[in-house]
Amino acid sequence: MSGTDMSWFAWWSEADWIIRSVFIILVLLSLASWTMMIQKVFQFKNISKFERLVRQYLLGSNSPRTLVLHHPVHVPSVHLAEELPDHAELSELNEFAGQILREKKLDLESGLTLLATIGNSAPFIGLFGTVWGIMHALQALGGVEQISMDMIAGPVAEALVATAVGLMAAIPAVIGYNFLLRKLRRLNALIDGNAVRIVNHWGRGD
After folding, report:
1. What is the pTM of this model?
2. What subcellular compartments does it reside in (predicted)?
């Protein structure tokens, strides 16, 4: 077994339950953020593909009433076409469409709050672990008459692992949040454009 592996095992064996808990929490938060990012990327990609198909379908002078026959109903524009009432004024259609789209957009935003929370809180959780580790190390050295740098450097370096893990959890979450937010804005613009076409067609009785 290499010396690096031994140092990692030594760090874990010498850490108290609070440092271990901080480390486990940060690892779980990192896994949760990566899982959410991958899930949202595939979700946005899938819906964007179908929304573009819906746009081409509507631009081809096809009736929005037949959208559900050719496209998946989980697509926001298709769901809108399925839920719109047959007999209503244009103002009522716009209000009804706005309500449906707000609900669908909230569904698309789910998970982004988790990424933002992890990105904001993970560094502080790691910092807490570091402060606790340093305090624990200094208390252990309190009864030592002659303190050398080696005696201080080891425990402090072990405590700083918590900060490093906190940053490793936070940085991808922040980058992923900003990336997904930009993707969501583009997707919402596409959805809004399709919604306008659907309502206009519906209002004319197409």
Report:
1. 0.79
2. Cell inner membrane; Membrane
